[in-house]
Amino acid sequence: MINFVGCTCDVCNEKFTAESDIVVCPECGTPHHRECYKQTGHCINEAKHSEGFEWKGPEQEFHYNDNRCPRCQTENPKDAVFCENCGIALAPQAKANQSHGPIPPSFEDFKQQHQKTSVVPPVLPKALEGEIDGVSYKDIAIYVGESAPYYIYHFKNLQAKIKHFRPFCWSAFFFDGFYYLYRKMWFEALSILVISSIFAAPSMLMMFTEAGIVDPGILASVGNIDTLVMIGSVLTFAYKVFLGYWAIPRYQKKVCRDLKRLKEQSTSNNDYYATILRKSGPSKVMLYIGIAFCILYLFI
Description:
mainly alpha; two-stranded antiparallel ribbon; two-stranded antiparallel sheet; 4 strands; 51% helix
């Protein structure tokens, strides 16, 4: 991440401090005091944008840790975000005979800078370079939120069409519909609820009969209820496996579709990124509902 402390604001010609509230132009990367940016209403170097102007900060020395996995000690590629063996997040890797100068930051640096300035920083982590389906990984990282490294890692592998690679989402396997609600995939969650209810119908019928809620005569008219319960359980398990494999590719399409729509509806880059930030992350309400449901299930 670029450290703006000691750099000069081109509007007021005062130097930035560690306490400065900074806004960075998404077009050229010029930093401004937030009040200065509001005062001008645009980037101070806006006239130079058509010339491809990019703000250059002072060169700084960066130090990186080894990219060896701290858990399994596997050596990973220099731009790996997750360990290729066990999947945990990695720190940026040091280069042999590394030269000093501005180097792309880690994802955490990117996220902190974005949260502080509300504008995308001009220098991006290596893992956020490029795009998928016409949408940049930078925008995807902001929109997805805290889990962005995990999803971008899998999105890139899906895009590369790696042989035999098919990511499995354990959250979708164990929590099926709640996972899809948490990730704001409303239509998919409703479909899952309907299909899961059909598979679980024999078990629910047996449970309600044993509880005295349903007339035993209805259960007798169904036939071999034990066989139906067993078939329903097998189908439910198979469906959960399918949802685990389907979750990440489906979420990728959902994220790209949402970002394209927001891009079309926005009047400017600042409006676009402000909207992404406002709509970013999963549904916290559904997380709380899911937790409450699990607690009720355990104690009732």
